[in-house]
């Protein structure tokens, strides 16, 4: 039995865990009864506890700051999503895909996902998925891959000369399993069924792994696949709340009040009060349905002799994503002139928001569909050769490719004529996320609409190709009593990003009428529109996502179109794919990075205690070549740009054992983060089709650079137990910031079809509307200070049955400075990351039974990239949010283990909200946008090994 050091901290944490434990989870053993109740502990380390202890051993052995997740066995990663698994590490938070609610990207130490570099077995990789396709960032999307294809993930938080550069936040290395990770034959399987309480559908997941070694040879293959069906419901204001007296002048939010209509009744309000009160740009109910299919295969052929260890490692993964959004809209925007709103019976709440009954509302429904596919392929040769006990060489050659495409279509059903205007009553004070909304019209009556239109389509492809070559040498030496490891290496990485965007046409126009004419051939007159709508009515269906229930007293059903109409009748995917190119957002960027590093690790006893350290420098030269299209008076013409820069990135770390259990660490180093490829290479693009704004690329952008300082104290008080305090500071300069200028739309020379129908109407009325032109420039410097607290322990000292409890607790506190916004000549500091992130896992393992529950929570933070509302005094914020997950398993024998997983038990709501810089208008959380509630997932898994 291991010796346990009892402390006040341990006792306090143990007490909290014991309070949550149920005595019925375990039963008194016959051995304990035979000993008259004496405490006898037999510690068997297996499963999740074994994974944690291996991870902690890796952390303690490192010189710099490193955390790891280790699979419980080959093909048995602790969580079903790699991104979600990393959340329990201090300083890591997950960014979930909005439609599927799966962990998609990670943010490390308070910096966005673009500040983290991801590698496979040390080689850099890129992959994008779903709604991120077309953004052309440097992010890595983890949801492309089944977690069963990986055996270990290391998170390096401090720089090392031997690590790939480009990660100011850190480097995440994902390691694929190899046959000699566990000698002999391994045959394992898992079969899972998952139920989502929003979609009310059950979906399968399965994995099989075979591995064997024969002498010095070994082979491993793993196949994993799953289908998911998730759904969520929510509410949107589509970006803006404003008053009549404080509106945008760029045309994207104009509305008026009609006070002369006979129905107008201000009650006790004055006109001035009404004109100063806030209205949402839209009142939009949302229902989202997402289906995904994912399959992956990993192979490894390995030779492991006395001197040579060489392997061929490959991984293939494919993700298909199909998302449908059904929207019911009541549109405040563009309610001017004859469309002006009528205050029938209104009040103004404590937050200066209008509530009540309003007439003359334009209503519309949208069916917004998106389908995407990502295919990823990785092949690598990894080798190690030991010349003798002191000298060894390493080398790798890898190729990876991510090919992704996404097609989107929006079909709108309008009720925009005077006869079909609606009177609605709404109240957002009870629940701003699920407000009460009622209308005086039957939303399932086709007579209450008058136009079916194709509001827009999009098609994007994004291809990432990377070729990486690395060779390294390590020489072990002794000099002046210092044990050292001299490391030197060369590498070259060639990365190619190919982005294509297309300009789909109005697909409804090519729909044949009964008499052979085309839908689009009818004149744009009342009679022509009436004939079009009479034909289109046959394609209308009731809301096919009405089982996805939103809260509040709202309509559950409205007319829309089905998936079948968009994908089959309109053949949207093929039609979008064959559309002409949008040359302003089409480019090929090739980036070649050549690096040389030299690093030495040192070990020596100082005052009778081991001191371990390393120091090194990485010298990097980055060259880029961009082929895109430049907009001239004659249209788009091909353009070629090139550039290069060099960086010297020194780093040093040390680790000193103050006692047998107490370790202190320190690190200093310089890192870089290269700018987004889209910010560099794109000529001109539309970031949001609903806003009259465009974005242009800046090929002169330099990389951001960061000087990093880290220090920690770690107390390893028992096997599998640690208390750690880590502090860090990152001083970052040359951060790109958005700058905007305004130009007449007619001067830009771009088609109006890039925008949604409401913006197109505004441009048809005034082609010279001021249009915001955004671009990035190296303009900001900021710094981040962080503190990470970690406690991990097995509570073997507790009385039975609580002696099988364990916990992992972490708290990350972050302060940022240097990201500012100005309003009324006052500068406001914005937290660009959550100030506080908490992760807590409590687990219990005894014999065949295991239980685990995890809770992750992050505080609110600013959406600093969205500046459109700043002139009105508002800043957009992300809400604080937390997720509770649970796992229970029982292992009957080696071949059969039953496991139940439940995720998002808190039924968490996610949204953005508007906060006024000067604290005006009361509770700003009453002004929400992008609100969603994705529901819970329950999974039942049978797994085992032979």
TrEMBL record:
Keywords: Cell outer membrane, Membrane, Receptor, Signal, TonB box
Localization: Cell outer membrane
Listed transmembrane segments: none
Domain of life: Bacteria
Domain TonB-dependent receptor plug stretches: 61-171
Domain TonB-dependent receptor-like beta-barrel stretches: 420-905
Signal peptide (from-to): 1-26
GO cellular component, one term: cell outer membrane
Family membership noted in the UniProt record: Belongs to the TonB-dependent receptor family.
The protein, known as: TonB-dependent receptor
Species of provenance: Pseudoduganella lutea
Lineage start: Bacteria, Pseudomonadati, Pseudomonadota, Betaproteobacteria, Burkholderiales
